[in-house]
Amino acid sequence: MIKILALPVFILIFSALSGCSSNSSSGNLGGTHFYSLSSMKPSAAASANKISIGIGPVEIPRLLNRPQIVSRKNKSEIIMSESHQWGGSYKEELNKAITDNLSVLLKTEKIEQYPWKSTFQPDYQVRIDIESFDGDINSPTHKNVTLNARWRLLKNDKELLVKRALITVPLKGSGYTAYVNAQSEALTRFSRDVVTQIRKNP
Question: Which domains does the chain carry?
Answer without folding.
Answer: 33-39+47-200 (3.40.50.10610)
